Amino acid sequence: MAKRVVITGMGVCAPNGHTLGNFSKALEEGESGIQFHQQLADLNFGCQIAGQPQLTDAHIANYFTPLQLRGLNASGLVYGVIAGVDAWKDAGLLIDPKGTPDWDSGIIFGTGILGVDKFRESIHLVDAGNTRRLGSTSVIQTMASGISAYLGGILGCGNQVTTNSSACTTGTEGLLMAYERIKSGKATRMLTGSCSDSGPYVWGGFDAMRILPRTYNENPSTASRPMSASAAGFVPGSGAGALVVESLESAQKRGAKIYAEILGGAVNSGGQRGEGTMTAPNSEAVQRCILQAIDNSEIEKNQIDLINGHLTATAKDPMEIANWSRALQRSGLDFPYINSFKDTVGHCLAAAGSIECVGAVLQFTEQKLFGNNNCKDLHPKILEQIAATKIPQQTIPYSPQIIAKASFGFGDVNACVIFRAFND
Amino acid sequence: MEEERYKKLKEIIGIYLPEDVKLDAITAESHFINELNINSANLVDIVLDVEDAFDIMLENDDMDQMETVKDALQIIDKKLAEK
Description:
The structure holds two protein chains of two kinds. Chain A is of the alpha/beta class. Chain A folds into two domains: 5-253, 3-Layer(aba) Sandwich (Peroxisomal Thiolase, Chain A, domain 1); 264-420, Thiolase/Chalcone synthase (Peroxisomal Thiolase, Chain A, domain 1). Chain A has helices at 20-29, 38-42, 57-60, 66-69, 75-90, 116-127, 137-142, 146-155, 170-183, 200-208, 248-253, 283-297, 317-328, 342-345, 352-366, 380-383; strands at residues 5-13, 34-36, 49-51, 105-111, 161-162, 189-196, 239-247, 260-269, 306-308, 337-339, 368-369, 396-397, 402-409, 413-420. A ten-stranded mixed beta sheet of chain A has the order 5-4-6-7-1-8-14-13-9-10, with helices on both faces. In chain A, strands 2-3 form a two-stranded antiparallel ribbon. Chain A is globular. Chain B has one domain: ACP-like (Non-ribosomal Peptide Synthetase Peptidyl Carrier Protein, Chain A, Orthogonal Bundle). Chain B is 59% helix and 0% strand. Chain B is built from four helices and no strands. In chain B, helix 1 (2-15) crosses helix 2 (40-54) and helix 1 packs across helix 4 (69-82). The radius of gyration of chain B is 12 Å and the shape is globular.
């Protein structure tokens, strides 16, 4: 018998808020986390703005031992541990540094590339013939699975502890992997999420591809313009999001609060065939992914109230809307509400899926639909397909029953998850 | 002089002690791994910190012999004498 799967805890470390409460308030009020970065200007970047969590050393010290802090130079790891530990505590779960491993709890925590700054530090030492000076932390801070390994040790998880990686779908894919594991009874509880480093070495490649906005360096908060006619590229971001998912049975047994139920979802790829390439999605694959998610969740297309899109603020946004519209066979006023959180957090790359899943799910408990920003000039090709009222320009009171969340990534990969309000 | 070196070394070791091992548990006879429960990976970091603190360089052989606090002190003394 397949288990029902619910979300019982969440944590976030986003450019516009590094606690669940601050993040929720920022999404509600359209508070931007995008800032000008002098370092990017000094390095001659075209795009000199980015989203980066604003953390103090004192805050970071709450999550790491003094020993762990020594030589710690992996921003994604810091964000992931903060979000992961916060999600665990938010779920009402204890952290026992002694005890035995918790055999029924596991971790799937993804990333794109981890510890880039640490890796750079190591490269300089190696190139200078000083390999012996690397110390013991260069491997654990730069291995992709460093994030799941750190969290695994802090929380004492004894079930599967791993890291997934699928570019900008990473977080949403990881959530579905965790969901499957609980549904099939292989684990009772999984901490899932994803993180992405900050800094020029992560963002530089995208700047070189000329897909980041170059004309908003003096106006950072208006730079990220999903669904806008004046969208000029995605603003690079960083951070982490984390969710505790567990069987309904387990959640009810321990009297945990339940944010939402995960009804199902799908992941696929366009195979980089047809219009699909390494960097562009195959529309047929996107539509199939959405339809499979709906099938898998055993709902009808018209039951979706709200979509939290991938919507990065590039020329591809109208195409994403077209894919949703075709897959759902809904348009005009019949189209569900839709929003994008990239307007205020930017595109947090590997962390995007999980930060946005946290934001999407918060809308159930907050009973609000978080408004869109920077798209008063909606793209005409979007308005040809759906009604402007379906893209709220400010936060409105709303009680969604079913939210669909999708993420798409380089490699022509897609993930779509379906959440339902929990009202049992 | 020796007292000062021992104090300096103890401060370095202290950073790598597990949370349940107190600083005053360190004696000259203490075995880094078996008694002080220091993670073997961190011995590498202790060596680097010792190099920085005393401005010396340890060879692979020195590291292999460094099992107790006393071993470490002897190696430090030897290296400083060679300077």
